[in-house]
Write a structure and sequence with these properties.
It contains 12 helices and 9 strands. It has helices at 3-7, 22-42, 64-72, 87-99, 112-120, 144-149, 180-187, 193-202, 208-212, 239-249, 262-265, 267-279, and strands at 49-53, 77-80, 105-110, 127-133, 160-166, 172-178, 206-207, 226-231, 252-256. The strands form 2 sheets. Strands 2-1-3-4-8-9 form a 6-stranded parallel β-sheet, with helices on both faces. The protein has a 3-stranded antiparallel β-sheet with strand order 5-6-7. The protein is globular and about 50 Å long. The protein starts with a helix and ends with a helix. Pfam families: Abhydrolase_6.
């Protein structure tokens, strides 16, 4: 049964907007620019700025452990605020983040964030590499929903609650959350119960239409080198789907026995793969 058919069985308990993180991102631009300038002034290799794009049911804090390792190793980092409204509009916002960064960039996308970096990174000379973390690598004409349903194994539909929202122009849409009491098992089984409960409470909803929206192309992974962390205990995106997309993209693959929330449960591993990609920009 498809995700869409299952969605109608549930109700959502809260709603969220996509604007809260932009001030933090703007502050991070200055941090990133300063770090890059310092490298250049010293005559050493200018490390690329790592731009992290979170996915559905998460926020920028899901990258905290990864950012700590990257910053310790001298990389400028921006954890972008993903509106989770639609691939094209979310990619447009991510491109504005990239535009405000001096020097080369490595884009990193988790889950639905992979769809966003696939579109935002295309035809952009600043973007030197792509890292997909338990993520979608869609081809033109594909949606996250289609790729999920193409392979068995996702138990996400049975955990979702939808809520109807009304926009200022009077149109309506549906936001999706994971039910808080099912979040730990579904999204973050290898994260502590305490941390999973906090993540469940802070989760950001994704518009159902965003998961149904098709990639317009070109796909950035056809133009730039890519790395992919495949999570073999993932209940959101089936491992078979992840392997299919990674192989098709010719990505450098690292398989990790982890849940969908691998950036939280295995931040060191995720940071190491990102640094591999960054070093390839030399």
């Amino acid at each position: 049964m498809s995700v869409v058919k299952n969605l109608s069985k549930h109700r959502l308990i809260a709603a969220s907007t996509a604007t809260a993180g932009m001030a933090a991102a703007v502050t991070a631009f200055a941090i990133a620019g300063t770090a890059s300038a310092a490298d250049s002034a010293s005559g050493t290799w200018t490390k690329p700025t790592i731009v992290l794009e979170h996915g559905a049911f998460a926020d920028g804090s899901s990258w905290n452990g990864v950012m700590e390792k990257l910053r310790k190793d001298g990389y400028p980092v921006v954890a972008a605020a993903n509106p989770l409204r639609g691939v094209a509009s979310d990619a447009a916002q991510l491109r504005t983040v990239i535009d405000h960064i001096d020097g080369p960039v490595v884009l990193v996308g988790h889950s639905y964030g992979g769809s966003v970096i696939t579109e935002a990174g295309a035809d952009n000379p600043k973007v030197k590499g792509l890292v997909y973390v338990a993520a979608f690598l869609p081809a033109p004409g594909e949606s996250a929903l289609r790729l999920t349903n193409q392979f068995p194994g996702s138990t996400l539909p049975g955990t979702l609650d939808p809520v109807t929202f009304t926009t200022p122009d009077g149109s309506t849409g549906t936001d999706l959350y994971i039910q808080q009491d099912k979040f730990h098992h579904q999204f973050a089984a290898d994260v502590s119960a305490k941390d999973a409960a906090l993540a469940a409470a802070a989760q950001r909803p994704v518009a159902q239409s965003a998961l149904e929206e098709k990639e317009t192309g070109p796909a950035a992974w056809t133009q730039k080198p890519s790395w992919d962390i495949v999570t073999t205990q993932d209940l959101n995106i089936p491992p078979a789907a992840q392997r299919f997309m990674a192989q098709r993209a010719g990505a450098h693959v690292t398989e990790v026995k982890a849940s969908h929330s691998v950036a939280v449960s295995r931040p060191g591993t995720v940071a190491d793969v990102i640094e591999q990609a960054a070093r390839a920009t030399r």
